[in-house]
Amino acid sequence: MSRTQVIERERRLRPWAAICAILPLVLYMAAQIIETNAGLEVSGLATEQLRSIDENSQALLYASIARAIGFALLAVPLVYLFRAAQARTDRVNSLFLGIVIIGPVLLAAQGLITWSAQSDVAAQFVAQSPGVGDIYSLADNLAEDSGALSTATGLVLPGMLALIFSMIYVPLWAVRTGLLSRFFGTLGMALGASIILLLQIALLLILCWFLYFALIILGRIPNGRPPAWDAGEAVPRPAPGSEQLAAAGVPAAVVEGDATEIPGVDENPNAARRERAKRRKRKRRS
Question: Which residue of 132, 155, 233, 286 is 20 to 30 Å from 254, comparing CA positions?
Fold first, then answer.
C-alpha cells in the first residue's frame, strides 16, 4: 500500500475510530450512574446482594449492556492504531491482530453472561429461600451449580490477558513508528500492565487514555497529530536530548571533546615483567 493510500484510509476511518475511542468512557460512566441510582447492593452479605440483584435486574441489564458495548468498541481504536503502525513497518506481526480484537470482545461477552448468570441465581435464591434454614449455604450452592457463572468467570482471565497484550504491543509499535509520543505510548503500556494489580482503576484509566487518543488523531491537542500520521510512513520521535544537539549543529551520535592516549593502558600488564626477565638473562650470559 502506497503512502497516499495509507493516508487516505486513515483519514476515512479517523472519525469512526475517534468516536469508538470516546464512547467507552461515556458508556462506562453511564453504567456506574445506572447502578448507583438503582441502589444496587455491591457490598455486604452475599444473600443481600442476591436479593438486590433480583430487585434491580432490569437496571443491572441496562448497565451491563452499556458496559459491554463500551468494552467491545475498544477494539476499533486498537485495530486502527495497529493497522497504522503496520502500514509503517513490516515488523508488526499481523497474526497478533486477532488478539487485539478478542480482548475487548471477551470482556464484553463476560459482562453480559455475568448479568444473565447472576440474575438467574438471584431469582432462584429469592424463590427458594423462604423456609430454608441455612440461606447462606443455599446461596453458595446455587452459585456453584451455575454453569453460566462459571463460564463468565472463565472468560475474565483470557480477556484481561489479551487486553494487557494489546495495550503493550500496539502502543509500543505506535511509539517506534512515531504515531504516539514516547510519554503517551509508555503511559498506555504502563496502564495495560497495571491491570494485573489494579483492575477497576486501571480499566477506568485506560478508557481515559483512549479518550485522549481520540483527541490526538483528530488533531485536537496543542501540538496536533505527530508527523507520522500525515506522512503516511514511520517518522520516529527523536531521542531525548537529540533536538538540542541538532539545534547546535552537532550530530546526535557525536560527542565533542579531546582524547589523549594514556600510556600503558592497552599494554599487557605482564609485558614489563617479561622485559626485566630478558634483561637479567642477557646480563648472566655476558
Answer: 233
In 10 A of CB 159, how many CB atoms?
21
Task: Report the distance separating Cα 38 and Cα 263, nearest Å.
Answer: 82
Return the HEC string of the chain.
CCHHHHHHHHHHHHHHHHHHHHHHHHHHHHHHHHHHHHCCCCCCCHHHHHHHHHHCHHHHHHHHHHHHHHHHHCHHHHHHHHHHHHCCCCCCCHHHHHHHHHHHHHHHHHHHHHHHHHHHHHHHHHHHCCCCCCHHHHHHHHHHHCHHHHHHHHHHHHHHHHHHHHHHHHHHHHHHCCCCCHHHHHHHHHHHHHHHCCHHHHHHHHHHHHHHHHHHHCCCCCCCCCHHHHHCCCCCCCCCCHHHHHHCCCCCCCCCCCCCCCCCCCCCCCHHHHHHHHHHHHHHHC
Cβ contacts of residue 198 below 8 Å, gap of 6+?
none
What distance in Å separates the CA atoms of residue 73 and residue 62, rounded to the nearest whole number? 17
Grid cell for residue 215: 483527541
Query: What is the per-residue pLDDT across 65-77, written as a single tens digit (0 to 9) for each?
Result: 999 999 999 999 9
167 CB contacts (<8 Å, ≥6 apart)?
Answer: 188, 189, 191, 192, 193, 195, 206
Give domain limits for the chain.
3-231
Q: What angle do CA 199, 160, 150 make, to 5 degrees?
A: 95
Q: How many CB atoms lie within 10 A of CB 113?
A: 20
CB 52 within 8 A of CB 121: no
State the pLDDT confidence band at 245, using cuts at 50, 70 and 90. Answer: very low
pLDDT in tens, 40-65: 766 667 778 888 888 888 899 999 99
